[in-house]
Amino acid sequence: MINLLDLNKKELEDFFVNIGEKKFRAQQTREWIYRGARDFSEMKNLPGELRNRLEKMQEAGEITLGGLKILDMRSASDGSTAKFLFELHDGNTIETVLMRYKYGNSVCVSSQAGCRMGCRFCASTLLGLQRNLTAGEIVAQVLACLRYVKDENDYPLSSNDERIGHIVIMGTGEPLDNYENVKKFTELLNAKDGLDLSLRNITLSTCGLVPVIKKFTEEMPQVNLAISLHASNNTSRSALMPVNDAYPIDELMPAVSAHARKTGRRVTFEYALTAGVNDSEKQAEDLANLLRHYFNHQAGNGGLCHVNLIPLNKVEEIGMEGSGRKQVLAFQKKLEDMGIPATIRREMGADIDAACGQLRLGKK
Ligand code: SAH
Prior knowledge:
The chain is of the alpha/beta class. The chain is built from eleven helices and 14 strands. A ten-stranded mixed beta sheet has the order 3-4-5-6-9-10-11-12-13-14. The chain has a two-stranded parallel sheet with strand order 1-2. The longest helix is centred in the middle third of the chain and has 18 residues, at 135-152. The relative contact order is 0.12. The structure holds S-adenosyl-L-homocysteine (SAH). S-adenosyl-L-homocysteine binds next to strand 10 and strand 12.
């Protein structure tokens, strides 16, 4: 089965030529796809005969327009966040979060069904990895969110009033464990006749697969990089993140430091504050010292990092507690006093289990 959302312009042109249709149908179809069309009947400027033909191919299971089925949608009480549970064509389920900020809409996409990284505090990894998502399956999550905001406002499909301005690749899965598809996903969104989204408005978060980070630096230098750090020495980090045994801090940090130097772009370090585990003043000091060691003017990347503090979100099966407000503020202050800029992540969606680390393979 061909997912038309997996195809870039050239590939979609080839598809139409192969089925004996005109090449420019690709352009027309893409316009509707990236406006959020769910089926061929909505593609008004395609001839009726072609629409029928494509619909028949879809019914026969030869092609699909994304193939995400919305199983569930939950909206936070203040309307800021919506979480979707989608079913993929093979029955696997994934979650996607739409965040509405004053400055625009952001979507947090999943890159895999499940995850095999095994971080102790994260719900996404509880059932292991089912499979990688294709580029089109990641695109489909964004387009479903776009369609949702248009429908909510009763905007016609063709309107440009609602856009998706930012993407974070921070949902379920380890994006660098599915590198090629994630890379293609960013290219599809970036294409002028795709979503025309600047690569600088995309952020990828990784638990730290060092060889792939190096590739990312070479091949995707405009995409923002976030590193899930959560601890500043190997003993503590390995206890929280098994990946640290394969790629310890002393291999991770030089790669990230080189990334900042080569791209000239600021790296984010994510740090989930967990009560009694990694939230003491001493640990804040250790973290600041670690970052100062790898980010400074001598290294050619002074000032190009900052820390994003996330009070750990509750995961039912996991007996860890987020740090209290006082502890979070004290941790932030210590970092800032030592010259490391630190922000506290604005927590959205915790009441609908849509916050960081709470996404999982869905329950039907
Ligand atoms: N695999 C990628 C992206 C997914 S996780 C990565 O590890 O970065 C997105 C962010 O949420 C990561 O920083 C992750 O460590 C964090 N996270 C996971 N579980 C969490 C929890 N229970 N509370 C807060 N943040 C969590």
